[in-house]
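Quick entry, no commentary yet.
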Amino acid sequence: MHHRIVGELMTRAVVSVRPDTGFKDIARLLAEHDITSVPVLDAEDRPLGLVSEADLLLSEAAQEDPAGLLLTPRLNAAAQAKSRATTAEGLMTRPAVCARPEWTAVEAARLMDRKHLKRLPVVDEAGRLVGVVSRSDLLRLFLRRDQAIREELRGEVLDRTLGLAPTAVSVEVTEGKVTLAGTVEHRSLLAVVERLCRAVDGVIAVTSTIDYRIDDTSAGRKQGPADRDQIR
């Protein structure tokens, strides 16, 4: 099974800034390129941190309400310093949380979820920026054609990985939703089939009505539905 990796999904043409890049220049870059953050790089192109829309808006949020209707927000020392910053060095959130090109999409997605991030700089072994992977990049996996998903399930999972005959299990894929039917030899294989199918890139859900012939999950052998049919 081939899982798509960050290096295949990331954007290589990265918009970045230096520590001395000014507030307005950063805001202009975000607007022009329709992005929500930019990495801040040192002289050797290693990410130091990121400046996001939220970092820039903190300057506005810290201002007093001209009409006097809203209370002035109470900011901690770090937030106060950031709200007064005029360059990327003071505005950025550090350290930069980065991904590696060889990571799977699952690894990148879990890190984004855990850190509540929308984008991750991608760095090489030397820590230099080589790309950026975003939530939208990862979501492209779910735009795979149903036929491509079915071919991978049929060929890679059921045939080459599990060694099942083409007639043993049928596979249907509609809008990323997989339906499995058929009969396998052992009951213990049912969970394995479902787990491997769910792991294929682009699969949204798996519904299985696969039957079994032998219940090998308990000490005493029990007859499965297929056994009872044969006895009848």
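second:
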Amino acid sequence: MKDDISVLVCDDSALMRNLISRIIENTQGLSVCAKAMNGQIALEKIAESKPDVVVLDIEMPVMNGIEFLKERKKLHLDVPVIVLSSIATEGASVTMEALELGASDFLTKPNGSVSADLSTVADRLVELLSSYGFAYAIMHGKDVYEPDFFIRQIKLREAERFVLEQKKEKIEALQEHNVEKITDKIVPVANKIEWNPPEKKQAAVIRPLRDGGKIDIIAIGISTGGPNALREVFKLIDPHLKQPILVVQHMPAGFTKEFAMSLNKICPLEVHEAEDEMKIEGGHVYIAPGNFHMVVEKRPSGAVIRLSQEPQRNGHRPSADVLFESVARNYRNNALGVIMTGMGRDGATQLAEMRKQGAWTLGQDEQSSIVYGMPRVAFELGGVQKQVSLKNMADEISSLARLHL
């Protein structure tokens, strides 16, 4: 029998503790090992309950989330922490401070009706807990389900919501999406999942239409695990890099501006949150703003960034596929595409298209990825020329950019 990924929930609101705990307990493979109403109690309970991951509120009495993270650092505790964050500007700023202090990632706190926000919070929470908790649990000798197992449960929940929304087709949808009807309630069948880890596929072979040329632009797609991974890359990037770097990091609106500012503190290049019609300059980094797709448009006067709110692709806006598609079309073999840690497959198809056009491509390796989802699919599609560890990614990007200038 598999072990559960154990979670400590820390929030001063009893309502939020119960909400988060209910999501966790309703997910096979996750369990709540302890609850705390402030950071001080959480520190005490970490020693007792030995969680694999912590969900942490920021604003709490006695010891708030920032103080908790500072104390965690002093005590050399390495358990991953997911921050519960407000969407307000001040909340975004504090969230970036939390990441700088060692938090792994963040979750936007539900506001308004709890029932209305429950489904969106649940999916994101399960994604983060399973991703960071899996890595920590495995490192400490536990036998837990892989992240793909939790993706399966997220998809089942999506199916349940679909059934509820499509009442006219309820019977057909119930059968198709493998849920059971008991009176008027939809009951999940997550506890009936039979799980076999996906088999590793051999990489497809792509024969590029042209040889790789000089690199005029670098495009990066990244998701779960991205905030800290990008910090690692950009603090070590070549300060003399001549090419512009465009980044799609899956992140909610309201956070990307603060994220760009936090990267700018540690990156030797200038980092900006991208704006529509912004001129693309060499040696600058552009972060796609939350809730906007980012593409490149070439003009006689030079390339510019265009933003749009066209429909989500692969469930995301911004989407790495949208950026990569634009780069493949405009730059063909004069580009470098990089795909890094993330759940799902966003970016994989169009990275393969970049490779087909002759672009240089890199993918983060399995061992260093928080979630080997996006880079795995890209590798299987033949879109990854070379797999690189996180610790070597900055050097690999820098050396390719220098070599093919």
